[in-house]
# Entry
Amino acid sequence: MSVLSGRTLPVVGAPMAGGVSSPLLVAAVSDAGGLGMMAAGYRTPEQLATDLVHTRDLTREPFGVNLFVPTDPARRSRDRRSHEAAVASYREAIQDRAQELGVAAGHPQWEGDDHWEEKVVLIETFAPAVVSCTFGVPPVEVVRRWQAVGSEVHVTVTSPSEALAAAAAQADVLILQGQEAGGHRGSHEVEAEPEPIDHLGLLETVRGLVDLPLVAAGGITTAGDLRRALDAGAAGVQIGTALLLATESGASMTYRAALRDPGLTERVTTRAFSGRVAGAVRNAFVDRYAELAPPAFPAVDQVSRPVRAAAARAGDVHGIHIWAGAGWRACQDRPAGEIIRELAG
# Structure
């Protein structure tokens, strides 16, 4: 029996990195009967520890933490050799816009692993109800360490082969992320073009391959979406886009304005912002830089991040990433608890 089966509502709050999944939002989702998920990506171990303590102060309900699985050192070295020149060209192209905003483009940190080892130990010490992983499968020994302290291990997958790899690593639950998802696709290979399959298609193909609870993710913003996923065999759904405008969301004012902007009408998948394929609302940044961004994550993200942050401070909706899944127009500026209770009917 998974943690989700013990919750009142079969809803997981997607771990949205970059500040959107604030402790307030995580606690609100759990307090409403779902499972709030904290985003540990881009956070230092010290910041993550503060977030964990803050969230535990806000709620007595179970919640989880999501980590980015880093690329192994040998692959990082190969990526640097393959993409260093292209990342440099991308940085040169974006530098003009950076100067207009009064900042400098960032520099890639090719050897970084997002403090993986420190976070593994921190999670082991804190022992949240759930630890989930994105961008890869954690080593079996790490999975066992987390499970030994009582944490259930969830892994995001975007294809049947990734699902089999996660099951082989003894994951407890699989998050099946379809092409409708907003933000980064959780594909295990940075250079891979994610399979063009929605969450219902993933449910149909994966449920016969593994004997694990499956959580559907990707563009689920209505009660009808949730019912269809459950009817197709999902144990629950993961929602992110539907919570972007929630009262407790940490989305910036510029991000919120962009989601409401009537002039922004098209959703695309692009590497423009980070080097990884991600679902976003098309804006001038996508048009200008999509063809220049190589499949090098987190290097491209590190280069563009200061520029995007400055654009957000300036209120420029065409200079930020507008992560959004299909159906983003259904976002509502309401408390998160109201949103997920309505979604769950």
